[in-house]
Structures are given as structure tokens and as C-alpha cells.
Amino acid sequence: MRNIHDYIWHRRAIIRNLGLAVVCSFPLQLRAEIDFNRDIRPILSENCFLCHGPDEEDRKGGRRGSGGLRLDTEEGAKADLDGYAALVPGEPDESELLFLVTTDYDDERMPPAEHGKALSEEQIALLRQWILEGGEYDRHWSYKRIERPEAPEVDENSFVVRNEIDRFVVDRLVSEKLAQSPEADRYALARRVAMDLTGLPPYPSEVEAFVADEKPGAYERYVELQLKKPGYGEHWARMWLDLARYADSAGYADDPLREIWGFRDYVIRSFNENKPFDQFTIEQIAGDLLGEPKIDQLVATAFHRNTQTNSEGGTDDEEFRNEAVVDRVNTTMSVWMGTTMACAQCHTHKYDPITQKEYFEMFAIFNSTADEDRKDEAPILELFSDEQNRKRKALEESIAEEWRTLEAELSKKEHRTRRLEWEKRLISGEGWQPLVPLESDVQIRSKGKFSIDDEGIVEVHENLRPNEQYTITSDFPEGMKSLSGIKLEIPALEDGDPPWSLTEIEVRVVHGELSEKVVEESKGNEKKKADPPLKLVNASATFDSPHTKVASAHDGMRANHTRGWSVPGRFDEDHEASFELKKPVALSKGSKIEIVLGQVEFNRPIKRFRLWVSEEEKPLPAVPILLASTLEKPERKRSRQEKAALISFFARHDSESRESHRAIAEEKAKYDAVEAMTTVPIMAEVPESGIRKTHVQLRGSFLDKGEVVGRGLPSAFTEGAGTDDPDRLALARWLVDRENPLTARVIANRYWEAIFGVGIVGTSEEFGSQGEAPSHPELLDWLAIELLESGWDLKYLLKLIVNSATYRQSSVVTEEMYRKDPENRFLARGPRFRISAEMIRDQALFVSDLLSPKMYGPSVNPPQPEMGLKAAFGSETDWETSEGEDRYRRGIYTSWRRSNPYPSMATFDAPNREVCMVRRERTNTPLQALVTLNDPVYIEAAQALGRRMASVGGSTAKKAALGFQLCLTRPPSVQEKETLLRLYESLKRRYSDDLKAAVDMASDPIGPVPEGGDVAEYAAWTVVANALLNLDEMFLKR
Amino acid sequence: MNPLLENIQNATRRHFIKQTFAGIGGFALGSLVNPASASDLPNPLAPKKPHFPAKAKRVIYLHLTGSPPNLDMYDYKPELVKRDGQDCPSVFLEGKRFAFTSGTPKLLGTRRAFKQYGKSGMWMSDAIPHLHEVADELCMIHSMNTDQFNHAPAELFTLTGSPRAGRPSLGSWATYGLGSLNEDLPGFIVLISSGVQPNGGKASFGSGFLPSVYQGVQCRSAGDPVLYVSDPKGMDRDTRRLSLDAIQEINELHADEYGHPETRTRISQYELAYRMQISVPEVMDISGESAKMLEAYGAVPGASSFANNCLLARRLVEKGTRFVQLFYWGWDFHGTRTDNGIQKGLTDKCATVDKPIAALIKDLKQRGLLDETLIICGGEFGRTPFREGRTAASNVLGRDHYPDCFTMWMAGGGVKKGFNYGATDELSFTVTEDKVHIHDFQATIMHLLGFDHERLTYRFQGRDFRLTDVHGHVVKELLA
Question: For residue B11, which of B160, B269, B210, B264 has the smallest C-alpha distance?
């Protein structure tokens, strides 16, 4: 392509010399002044940047060897091209740019015909005017610092102005020659405010009080009332959970259930506490890096553990760990910065100034966490109830106290000699003897090839299956009389070796003939050992991270036991783990040891290892790497902390402190017996940034490695910010920094979108040059400044919006208004658009009085149709319907299985939450009608609502009016009431003639009608209620 | 009018506005709204013209989930048979990743008997005897090639153009571009044959960022054919009509009072739903088919078999459904059990598809529908020419996943008949002739439907997305 374009540039020069230049005859645009960002950037971005933008990789045109013509910078556009330039300020006819977009020569015209886009006359006129006015560039609007704009003066006699929002909006209405709509009536406002703030209609009593309240400030008081309801947090959490791609399953083919609802509850609580958004941000991105993080701050980091985990057989964990990191980069930039980063994963961004290198610098910030696409989702945090926490705390303290007592005792002089003696032995590692098994002693479950060297190091050359397991049945070293401990050594990995984890270790001693002692039972595909393994205690390891503790590998082989010992970030060092037998075993002639090393994790087998055994009364423990250097120093050179750490380690392995150990073990057992209420996967940094290097991944492939990069933030947004080697915490702080040009705008815009249906920037997911320009740029900046200066107070932001006169307008629209502004971008009327899937469901349960007010806890399974399907390689997708009130909880608590989202909500555009969802569609389809007409959930709601109507005293008309008012928060008109009554009367006649149908209609599935009730009446009221729940107005806020 | 523009205008109104605003910025907010269409929202599923006239009007896509062993069905490799049991040459293994195999596996020649069939002399194995009869209708591509070797990512790649969930599926793009030919039926219908979801879950037939009206609607053979299509117990059709009339009456009042066109749209959607309550169960009920027809397909009313779904696919396209997607689980022939071994396992599995597929082709042809209906059949990747590692010592023979070459076939609407395209080496490790990448395959399907795959796009997150990402070339040689 480069050649063709060069050729064209060349030809152009010839044409010019021949005097063939086409004179354009378009009339000048009558616009007062060109605004580069508003008028010009979109044209250039849409039509030119693909080939003449930031990506230098295949930039076209320009002088030979110049790296191509660049039109996204002023410098590039005005660069000298051998006597002419794309842009000559003030001289449209001298500017190549204009020539090439207007020329009649098809093979020269830009953009090239194969790109299918040609500029309109209006666009060309704008370009011409811009060049005439000097052709100046301006920084993209959303990358400029946010400054407080002045609110325009408007005519307050002709327009209602309640706060600054109205000034900005009215100013635009005036210039568009539009009028403000009158304020909506109180009923409409009661419904609108309650739906917007809590996601539910108001209680009838609230409505009546509000409608009757004639005192000033009635509206504002009503707003406060709604904001205080716990439903506020449940409603606004929904939007956040879409962004956080929260789901109750791990995704991909088998899509197993994942326990992570603690995060959902954190989000609801945070909204209800009105947690400042900057704090909310920092906790979720980097709560674990805060000094002494609170439990809630750790739970918050599950935000980025909502990435998918692939446990399909035969998948490469590193590939999908990489995918998760990519997702974290993209999601962070989407959620906070409204910037589509994904393009830059494979190449420098075509439209926005983000290079591929910068992409991976940001990737590097996230590339040092301990999670590794493991099936068990490690690292995870156990969550306990308040009472459990109190109990655990008390036990923790008493255990700590006992250790302190023991350590104090052992610090005394009288133990010094013994300790020094022990230290010497520790360094020498004495007392351990290697096992050197024969080939026939080793069984590799997958039958992979292996070899054993003279020193006893077993190397497995190929691992053919997940759920790998090695069994070593070997003679003891000569002369050994008893077995008191075993040690597993795993040498440092070499380049290209996969990381390992040991999920379980079992040790048995077999005396005499193997076949007599070990009985194998066949159970399914697995052989189960009948004799229990020996009890192991006092595990010690060279490295023991909080989430992959060595101790979790020795508590016996359990079904699906997938925790275990690993060394995230330190695989390039030699490692050991030692275990003591609770009771030493005496050996006789012919005794053999059997050791099983289970590695349930997919593709995480141990490549090289050696086993050691000991008969010492108290076998020496494996020495933590962190202590090894202390041991090498003479005692006087050790720091206080080093001494304390060493004493602490000594206390735990000292053979003469058995009494204390026993007492502590008893306390510990009590502590361990407290079972967690739930677990949450969390973010945790691998120590000292681990061994992962971040490379630029060529073409976005994790196997195709380019240069090594460090951590960094994209320079386009960070001028002047101190961003040297940022970690996640620095990233989080930068996101909510006053100087960050995007976050406050993006968040304010998203709230505006939630309330008005369309953001001030319509493309709320994209604030870059390919996004839409804001309809009210000053208003957006004003809202962003208010958000910043209020200390990121989201309820304050919402109050500003809903207290404005703009929001309080009636939503009635004339045909003329609609023609002029179908999406209501100019805001000459109040908002009216379809409510979300969750709101539709919650509302039906609320008006029928079925909705449970229960908050928090495990996700629930409301009724859904049986599909009789399984997930690929996974479990059933049908579920057991929850019982009791859990059947009627708010939609936010519904189990969210990614491969199979709750069908009735999916029909109303609820996403599957595989990736971050910034903006839901709002469709209007016949399948939606089938849900609300026929889904048993809605039939049950209709039955309950019908009974509610039937149970009220008075005339049929009164009953009908009650139902109507419950649903639509207003009394019915005469016509509406008549229609409902007519329907009721004909239904009643029909059902009186067919009582069997009446029984079905009135009671399936809710249950028999109240005793003595007229079943035909109940059936009729059910159908009336079903009609009410399907009125157009039910799906909208009015 | 420019077909692209026409296409955009026919999409949902909100989207149209978004496209336009996004395209040229906010400077002309007022002037861009098209007054002609302001008073009613166009039906997003109304039939639309593609970029250029095309032969194929409808698609039936038979996805064999798990990926059938092409070397035991379509791609005959006598040399591989000769070298059965030998160590796999290392040159074919270096630098490659396999799902369940490492080390040096053994070559595995097919155990099936291959012969040439039809006038075209198409090679096929004895696993698919009924397909022999329609050999001259098939357009066989032996040089398929994909980027993925795990099921879920590979299936998503094949059906959505991306290995990660979140992009629109082939059927969604087709319905977005073409609309539906029968407004009483969903435009894109999914039939799942064996009680197991696609590998990619619902994302394999999802609409991604396209409006959800374009997502595949799953029809079931037991229970409601479409979710909630039946009236509740105790409500007959007349009662439903009665209540619907009341709903519509009140909605009309609201439409007049508030003036929102969306209310009128809802009114028409409720009417459409009412009609679908009849039309969907009707088309999904095969009990009215003749005994001869049922026998030809091997279909049994009330069952939930692939055979039934083939017959349903014919009924649906006959009624104007744009895209019918079948998913049939159980083609992951690793040889870990008898039923996924390439001996008896493959014979049994093929017996469940062979006859219905042949019947489908003949039936469509006999009805004059084959020329306008594109049939596509295949899995998400290929299978190795060597024995899978885990089962190397077992009596059951199986093959691992293999992305580098495999076979897929098409028939009907716009493709050559009795045609072989592309070739692999004598052991079938690499494509030697006319490589067809998944994106090329997708570009070709779009072409057959009348679309330039580079121009059928949707603006999302500031970028125009398309089925083929930034790749894909139409394989002109396949076109009739």
C-alpha cells in the first residue's frame, strides 16, 4: 500500500504542475467558529486515522522514510512534503488534504474507495472553514484537565431553574429553539424518583403522603426518603455488577459455579453506606495493598477476580491467566476511563494515542498477582459471621499468647546453647536420608515417561493428563529403624517448565507383603486406598505463601481437594517441604514406604523432585528462605527482627517444648473447626513481584514475546503525574486523582445515562476520539467537578440530578418534539424509557406483595423452566428452585450462571456477564411479551396481586382501582377503569362457566384460593392482574 | 440508495441514531434525525436486502460439538494407514501444544474403509453410508484451519470470529443483515440435540453487542418449544385475546397521551407474540409429517434427536426462518471410552446423523429449496493423525484435538456441487493446498448470503466490528 500512496502523492505533484487542480465550489459553512474537537476531529478520526493515525506500524503516505503521513497531530498534518503539505493554514486550496478528499479522480480520492467512506459536502465545508481559520488542532476534549465551567445566565422568568444543571440545559434549549416541559404531576414524580433511586415503585403510603404534602421542600424530602432505603444500594449495585462482570460461575465451557457473592454484598453495602467513590475504587483495585487491609477491603479486590477461569481439560493455565490479566486491563480502562484499550493489545491504537508498549506496561501492573487460572480459584479469603469472627479472634489471641510465652521462655539464656546447636544442625540438614527409588518403584498415573538419577532425583518428562498423581513405593535406606518425618525437595524450575502445585501428600508404611496390607477398592475410575495414611504434623517449607500454605497439602486426600502447596512467584528457587509423623513408626525388615504426591490441578505437575526420610526423634524442618540468610550470620550481626523470627521458628520446632506444642495444637484444632460462611477469591501480590516478566505480546499472542517492559501508565492521560513504576495501588490512586481527566467525567456521565437513558456522551463506553462528542460539554464538566469537590459523593451527585427542573419535567412528547429529538438529547422533556430486567421482575413481585426484603447472602434460584441441558463438560444447567422467601428475592440475588443466565432476565437484555458491560441495550420484542404474559413467575405474581385486589373491601371498581394504583402509582382514568371492569366482568362470566379452568388460573402455582372464596372471581382478578403487569406503562418510568 | 446505508437505517432506530451521532459527532444533532421514520420504530427483523443479490437466502448450520474425526470420515490418507503405529515424526510436533498429548505419540491410520462415491468420485468412509448417496451435492473443504485447540474457544472462534465470548454469532450477523422472512417466527432458531449445551454456552448463539433481538432463540422439543409460548393453565385462547384487547386498549390511550412511539411498538410486539403462540408450536410439531417422511429422516415425534431437529430445520426454513443452528454434542473422539472411540463409537454416532442429513439434503432438493438454502456441517477443529496420549495403551482408539487441518462441508445455496477443495499432506499434518482459515470460511458464508464481510459492521466501543475481525478472504473457488 505504501507504494501506491507514494505514487499518488507523486501524481498529485504532476497534476498541480499542470494546473489541473480542481477548484471546489462548496458554499462556506455558516457556522460562527470552528471547534476542532466538536467539528473536525470526528471527521479525521472516522476517515483518516486508520491509516494516518498513531499506529506507525502501517501508517500510509507521507514522504518516503518519514514513517508515513500523520493526521492525528498538528505537526504531522503541517509537515513539509517536498514543497506542499497536507494542511496549509489559511490556504484551503493549497492543502493537499482538502484536494484529496474532493478530487474527481477516483483512484486518488481519499479516503480510498475500498474503505467505503466518502466525505459529505457538509464535512468538506467544515474542513475548508477550519483550514481557512488557521487549521489549528486542539487536545481531545476528554484528555483535558477538568475545570469548573461557568453556568450560563438564562431567562429565569421563562424557564424554571432549580440548580445549575438547568442553566446548562436551558441554554441549549434556547439555542435549539425548544421549550421546557412543565413539571410532571406528583404521581408521576413519585414513581419516577422511587424507580430511579431504589429500582422499585414506592409504597402507597409514601405516595399519598407525598401527593398531599403542600409544604415547601416536599419533593426534596421525598428524594431523601428514597435514598435512605436499603433498596437504593441493591438497585445501584446492579449497574456496578454489570461493569464488574460479576457472576456466580467461572465461565468457559464447563462454567462451574463459583463462590464470590461476598463481593456482591460488598458492593451493595458500599452504595448504602454512600462510600466515597475514590475509596470504593481504591479498595476494589488494590484493597490488598493498603496497609493492614480490613476484611472488606480484601473482599473488594474480588472485583478483578470476576474474570473467567478455564478448567476445560487440556487448557493451558498460563494462557488463561494471561487472558484474565488482559481482561483486567481492558475492564479497568472501560469502567473508570471510558477508554477502549483492547485495540492496543495487538497493535498501537489506530485512533487514540495509546501504544502497544503502553498497553503492556499497564498489563505489567496486573501481572504480579498470585492467581493462576487455578480451578480452586486460589487465592481465596474465607468469610465468617460476626459471631464466628469473635470466637476465632479469641482463639487466635490465646494461641498467639501461648506462642509468645514459649518464645519468651526460649529466649532465655539457659536455652541458648541448645538453640545454637540446633541452628548448626539445621544448616547441615543432618538426619535426612534421600530415597533412591528404582524405576519399578515409581508409578506415574498418566503413564508419562520419567527417569531417576543416582541421587534419587526423579524427573518426569511428560505429563499426559490433568489430575496427575505419582506413587513411590520404595525400600527404606539401609539400617533405618524408624520413620519420623519425610521431606519433599523440588529443585528450581528451568526456563519453560510449568509452575507446580502439590495438592496432597500421603505417606504409608507397608510391612511385609504389599498385597496383604493394602487393599484397593475400585470406585468409579478412581482407586481408593482402604488404609488411611499416616497423620502428618508440623509442616515447614522454604516458602509458604498465605494462600498456598504447605499445611494444606497434608490433611489427607479428599474428594476434589484442590488446595495445596505452591510457591507463586518463586519457582526459580530450590524448595523443600518437611513433615513430621504425628507418631513415629517402627520399621521391620522388608518395610516399605509408600508416598503419594497428588497434583489435582490441571497442567501443574511437579517436573523434578526428590524424597527424603528421617528417623530423628525431632526431624529438622525445611528452612524458610527468609530465615536462611539469618542462619548464616553470626548471632551478634542479626537484627532484632531476625532474632525474633528465628526464635519463633525455633519455638515451633524445638523438640523439648512438646508440652506447649500439644496445648497449642488443641487450641488450633478448635480454631480450625470454625467453618467459613463463604469464601471469596481475592487479589494478592506474589512476593517481591514474583518472577513473571512482562513482554510486549506480538499481535496479542501470549506465546509471541517481544521486548520486556516495566510497569507504567499511558502517557496520554498522565502528563506531569508521578508515575514511576506504579503498582496496583498507584494505579488505583491515579484513577481517582484530581488530575485524571477522565474518571470523574466518565462516572458523572454514567449516572446521567442511568437517569436519562442516554449519557451526555452517548457512547458511555468510549470517550476517545471514536466516541461521540458530549451533547452538553460544560454540563458534563460541571457535574464532574461537583463529584470531585464533594469528595466523590455519589448520593450528592444523584440528588443534584433528580432535584433539577430538567429531571422533573413531564415526559409527554408531541410528535413534533419527537421528530426533532427522538432520544431526548436536548432534554426538553422528562426521561421515559424501559426499565431494566431486574426492575421488571422486582416490580412484579413488589406490587403483588411477594417480594422478600431479605438482603445479602448466597445467591438464590427462583423458578426457571427445566431445560434438561448440561453445560459442555459441566454440570446440569437446571437448578433446584429455592424455597421459602428465597424464591421471591430481588433480581440482584438471582444466581448468575454465565453460560446460562436467568432466561426471563436475559430476554430483557440482562447480559451474561462474561465481560464488562458498560451499557445494556433496551429492546422491545415479542419474546419479552411472552415472559410477562406467561412465565409462571409472573403468573404467580398476578395471582398474588389478584388476591390483593379481591381482598380489599368495597366495589369491584374499587378493587380494580387499587390494583391499577399499586402497579402504576396513580389512580386510573375513567376510561382505564372502565376497560378493566369490562374485562373483569367478562372473565368472571367465563370462569363461572368453567370452574376447572378457574381453579388452574387462580391457584397454579401459588396454591388454593382462600377458604370460602369464589374461585371464578379469583381467576378473573388473576387475569386482570396479569393484564396490569403487562401494561406498557409498567415497563417504563413515567 | 447505498445498500450499506439502507441496512443501517433498517436496524433499530436507536442504533441508527447512535451510528450517525458517533460517526460525525454532536455538531448536527438536530438535523440528522430522519423525519420520515420518526413516528414509528421499524421492525428490526423486517426483511432487508444484502449488499448484492445472492443465491443463499437461508442457512442450516449443523455444528457437531466436540469435532468429528475427519480422517475417519472424509479425508482419506492411505499413507497414514501404512504407517499406523509408528512414532509420529518429530517435525510435526515441535513447537506445538496439544490438549492431552505430549512426548512422542504413535501415528493412527483409519480403521474405516474408504471409497469414492457419486459422479464426482468423492472419497468417504463407511461410517457415513447415507451421505454417499448425496456425494454429488457436497462441497467439501479439506484444508480448514483454525487458531484454537480447546473446545470452548475454538467453537466461539468458529461461530463468532473470536475465541472469547462476547461477539455476535454467525446467525446473529445473518439476521441483523437480512432480517427474517416470517415475522411470526424468530429469525434465528437454535436446536440442541443431545441435552448438552454448546461448548461456548449461550455465547455460541448469542448476539454479543448486537441488539438482543438478533440472538438465537432456543427451541425445545419437550415443554414449550419457545420459552413461555404457552398460555398459563386455565387460560384459553379466547381469554388471552380478551385480556390482550384490554391491555392494548389501555396502551392505545397511553400512546395517545404520552406520544411515545415505543408504546405503539409494544402494542405490535404483543400482537406478534400472540401470533407466535400459534405459529411456533405449529411449526415445531412434526406429528403431521407423513410416515414416509418421518422414516426418511429417522425422526420420531416427541423425541429430542438430531433426526427430529433436521426435520424441524427443514420445516423452519420452509416457513422463512433465516438461520437454523443445530448443536449436537458427542463428537470429541478421544478414545477414553468405547463411545468416543473411532471404532464402534464412531459407527454408532454417525448412525445418528448420517441418515437425517442425507434426508435433509434430498428433502430440500425435492422441494426446490436446496438452491436457496446453505447447509454447513462440521466441528470446531480437527483431530490428530496420531493416537491421543492419555489412552495410548487402551484398546479403544482415539485422536486428540488438532487445529491445523480439518474438513468441513457445505451444500446448497450458491456453492459448487460434488466439489473437493484444498488438500493436506499424506499424513494430514499440514495444509498443502488452498488453506481456508476460519475467517475465510466466515467471509465466504457472508458472501454467499450477499454480504461483503468487511462492510457488514456494527459500531461498538468506538470501533466498527465485523464477524471476521480484521481478516478473511472470500474463497471464490467454492462459489457455484
Answer: B210
